[in-house]
Design brief:
With 198 residues, this protein is mainly β. The protein has one domain (5-19, 35-194). It contains three helices and 13 strands, in the order αββββαβββαββββββ. The strands form two sheets. Strands 3, 4, 5, 6, 8, 9, 12 and 13 form an eight-stranded mixed β-sheet that branches. The longest helix has 11 residues, at 8-18.
Amino acid sequence: MTPPLRFLPALIALITFAVPPASGADTPDSAATPTTRPTAESPMRPNWFYYLKGDELVRVDATPLESRESVGAGDVAAGLLWGGGGKTWMTLPGATSEIHIAEAKPRFRMATERVAALMIRLAPFEVRKDKRWAQTDRGRQQAFFKKPVPLDVTKISDGLYEITPSKPLDPGEYGFALSAGGPVTDFTIVALKDKKSE
């Protein structure tokens, strides 16, 4: 049976991030810290975000998220009443990302299909109680972030795209996602005087 079209973005996101890598390749679990091995001209792993730092590519690993609905009745009720009228959020563990970037318009690259590149969304995350939060709209499959950041998506070559914020980013926490179900590729913009770039 063909799935309804409204589930297509979530299916693409699941396929994009959940397909296991080829045998012998690094996995997020085996590479918990960022790496800077590839250059801008070298082969990239498909469907992974890379921060373009000079002529090096810094791989940015995706982070599993916790989705909650704020219904005023605690986490148990939120789980039972999922899909109700409350607010929904993407939440990430920790108050900050492992990737710290000291520039306001960072460039990211991804080796992927055009449809996936155009589905990428970016949003700021608020820090609350050692977690990062971004409000979402479960009723919208593409514009699922309540406060999205406009992006410029540029084709570099066949199967390679560059993703850049359309406007400079303020210091803070940010995350890319392809659907409200995550996962989230997160990073932190830091002020130049507090530079902590990897």
